[in-house]
Each structure stands twice: as structure tokens, then as C-alpha cells.
Amino acid sequence: MRFVILIRIFGLAAASFDYRGRPTIDDLKKFYGVEKKMYVLRRSWSLQDDESGTAPKCIWNEVESINNSQMMFKEAYSIGLTVTNYFVHAKLKEGDGRDIAPTMTARQGKSRSATTIKDKEEHVTEAPELPQTRRYTFQYHDQREQCAVVTFYDGATRCQLLFWKTQKHLTGSKKTRRTPLSLSGFHNCEREYNLLCPHAKAYEVYDDECEKWFEG
């Protein structure tokens, strides 16, 4: 009986520490696949547009190319009836050491275009200087739910939860027999997001209206 009890105890302990470790560059490449369309569901910070005073919504991106050292993707967001598009170039780096997540040092392209949905007019602008780089860490990836948690640090850890467009059916609140009610069906990514940014305010930047901006 004592032997059986010990087996059960150690079995429970092993299950509690079933940790797969941080993602690798290969995991990052699987998530950011070429032509994969994805959205940001939620993030822990908000930036307001200088002119409108409104925060961007419907943040979308699609990878153009990726290899072990760099990635190029299109990114877009909406403010009111205006959609802004630009390219982002990111240098990729495997984590330094065991269980260290890979990083993406990203820089926006110099030119960007803004299209107003109402009149379909496109305006192209060019920044006088290239923006500063920002280093993101690819902290977590759930291959089954096709979501990921990415962070950066600017004096505080900032989190964002991304998902493939094909998984949009998981964006609403979900509960299963084995999981508590969460803000979305991305249960594992939600858990990791909350561990990395436990006390940060959450800003929802995706809703059902977003897809009309980026069909195709």
C-alpha cells in the first residue's frame, strides 16, 4: 500500500511539472508562417493616435518571408474608418541559453499608406527618419490553438496575445470541463499571458468587425 501511495504522489508531482520549455526559432517560424494572417487579440498597453486621440484596433499582420535570421511582414491597423499599412523587418535570434525564448528585433519601414474606407482614397506618407527598433520576445506558442504570447520591455513587461485568423472562432469567452472560464478559447495562451503580465490592464483590440478591413 505504501508503495502504491508513493507512486501516486510522484505521479501527481510529475504531472504538475509537465513543462515543455520556452519556444525555439523553429516554433517561431511555425507560427509566423509565410502568408499566415494573424491578429492581436489583446495587449497590456495602449497607444493613442496623435490626431484622433483614439487607440488603434484590428491590428493585423501577414508574413512575406522568414528564415532563421530575419522576417519581413506586413502590418496594419484601423482607427475609425482609416486603415494604415506598413512593412516591418525583424532580425531573429535564438535564445541565449537553455529555456530562453527567441527574440525579434523589429523596425518599421520608412513609408506607410493610409486608406479611408469611406472614399477608398489611399495616401502614402514617408517618415523623415526610420523609427527605433524594438526587441520582442516570443515567449509562448500553442501549436494546437495556434496562438502565441509575445512581450517587450520598456521599463515594464508588455504583453500581447496573437492568433491565426483561422482560429477566430476561439476569440469569445470559453469554458470547458477541464478549464475555468477565460476571456477566450486560447486557454494556454491566456494562462501564459496572465503569468507574464499578471497585474497589467488588458486592452482588447480585436472584435468581429475587424475582419471586414482585411478580407482577402
From TrEMBL:
Keywords: Signal. The keyword Cell cycle does not apply. Transmembrane segments: none annotated. Residues 1-15 form the signal peptide. The keyword Nuclease does not apply. This is Putative group i salivary lipocalin.
